[in-house]
Amino acid sequence: MKLIRRVVFFLLLLFFFSSLSKNLLDYRNKISFYQDYREDYEKEKKRNIELKTQLVKKSDTNEIEKTIRNKLNMLKQDEVAIILRQPTPTPLLITPTPLPNYLQWWQVFF
Predict the structure, then answer these.
(1) Cross-referenced InterPro entries, in alphabetical order (predicted)?
(2) Which regions in the chain score pLDDT beneath 50?
């Protein structure tokens, strides 16, 4: 009788541990899915805000006029254009690395 109780108890214990481990693994998978989904949601939310601001900017009449004038190189009345040359890059002089001291002394004496 005691042996049967121990076997039944052991089987119940085994069942509970297997169920617990399965639930823990499933929980970890669901948490990782939720975090990935949340990150994607935040990215799309930021992108949506950026697109809305671009839409407002593009629909503004002053911005439209400004972009057209810039693309066609036109000016308003009483506007003055200042054209600046691009600065020429100055060449860098590459200095050779000096020889080590022992080689310099070697060259001096020999």
Answers:
(1) FtsL/DivIC
(2) none
